[in-house]
Amino acid sequence: MASEEKARAWLQRPSREFGGGVPANMLETADGFSQVLMELGRIDHGIVS
After folding, report:
1. Number of domains in the chain
2. What are 1-46's pLDDT values in tens digits?
3. DSSP string, the chain
4. Which of 7, 34, 48, 49 could be bridged to 1 by S-S, CB 3.0 to 4.6 A?
5. What percent of the chain has pLDDT over 90?
6. Domain containing 29: what range?
């Protein structure tokens, strides 16, 4: 992420990649954490979902 502020905003915003779920809420489970981590990797590498 370009900045900590943008990363925090992304974590709090509903995301279509997660069926409208909020990434921060998904961090509570191992599966959700993995999904968020994979999406962050895609973003970091410029891969559009």
Report:
1. 1
2. 568 899 899 999 999 999 999 999 999 999 999 999 999 999 889 9
3. ---HHHHHHHHHS-BGGGTTB-HHHHTTSHHHHHHHHHHHHHHHTT---
4. 7
5. 73
6. 4-44
Q: Could you count the other beta carbons within 10 Å of the beta carbon of residue 43?
A: 15
Instruction: Report phi then psi at 15, rounded to 5.
Output: -130, 130
The predicted structure's pLDDT at residue 44: 86
Residue 31 lies in a domain: yes
**Beta partners for residue 15, in sequence order:** 21
Interatomic CA distance for residues 18 and 39, integer angstroms: 9
One-letter amino acid for residue 5 of the chain: E
pTM for the full model?
A: 0.81
Tell me how far apart the alpha carbons of residues 18 and 2 are, in angstroms, rounded to a whole number: 21
